[in-house]
Amino acid sequence: MAANGASCEQPQKRAGPKDKQNGKPTDLSVRDRRQKDKDERLSLVLWRRPVTTLQYFLLETLIMLKEWTYKLWHRRGAVFLLLVLCSLFSVTYSAEGAHQEYVQYLEKKFLWCAYWVGLGILSSVGLGTGLHTFLLYLGPHIASVTLAAYECGSIDFPEPPYPDEIVCPDDGQLEGSVSLFSIMSKVRLEACMWGAGTAIGELPPYFMARAARQSGADPDDEDYEEFEEMLEQAEDAQDFVTRAKLGVQHMVQKVGFFGILACASIPNPLFDLAGITCGHFLVPFWTFFGATLIGKAVIKMHIQKLFVIITFSNHIVEQMVSLIGSVPRVGPSLQKPFSQYLEAQKNKLHHFGMKTGDDNWLSWVFEKVVLVMVCYFIISIINSMAQSYAKRLQQLRNSEEKTK
Questions:
Q1: Sign of CA dihedral 118, 121, 123, 125
Q2: For this UniProt entry, which segments traverse the membrane (predicted)?
Q3: What's the whole-number average pLDDT of the chain?
Q4: Quick one: which of 243, 224, 223 has its CA closest to 233?
């Protein structure tokens, strides 16, 4: 009664979060305890506690290997069948004969597709904290193919995977014979494989939320907690980010397949919560994955691919270099290395295997940026796994305190 009276006297205040089982207000000390545990886990990083972080990382790695070994043992029939297929493929691969031509072709295609699928998974796994492989690998690859097509006047380079450098054919066609659609077809395979990898990377949050909803459990997962708090505060949402997240959630929940397709078909940083949303509302797997795969691997990839190709078209690149030179004071000094870099790339296209002089400082900077981002990604994995082991210890400690 007191709670009801308080709510009548102060209608402007929103009631606190409710416990899912008994409808009572959640104990604030429990929330404080969980926040304290979360802060303690987040402080476990290499630059603050390197020894403890590395120790927890190794222990979490051993636990994960043990869990995967246990799962593989329970699926030993499928593992045995996979080993038999690998053995048959190994025998076919090593045996000499006329079939070697097809085996080598399939091997080349498989490794090329697996490379881009893996980069796509790295890009989307971890709810937005993955390696940005489009900016580091796929975007530069499409740009290099575009520049080579306009410089060579042809797209008849070797089929992917290319040699160390793209080489212009000896009998180049006329410059006007290269079209936008021909360049798009040249990079379609790697772009679609990368998009398929990003769709696969959205599956772990979906399965986590789906399992939690079906079991009725309340997982101690920060992203899932953020999603549930967003649903509780839907009526009081004022900031743009929360309203945008709610918009994605409502579209996915009400429209279904086409809502997921629309969210996946555009560059959408808020799509990270779509997997949790679909899992929470028990959206069928093929509805979620099918729409995500079509949106990311077909529609979105053609939009991104078209943007990169247009940006790096021959006349647009020349206009960009000239615009850089028109910048007051620093323009000419910046224009020179860009011009040298483009000229060096053009020379490499026509003189494969020949040295064209010292490396440009732009390529040196790009290599160092890639190295730094890869190192940061590895460090983030170490920190995340160490924090995961710390969470295990906290859950064990809390369960022991409850039993006392």
A1: negative
A2: 77-95, 115-138, 251-267, 273-294, 306-327, 361-382
A3: 75
A4: 243
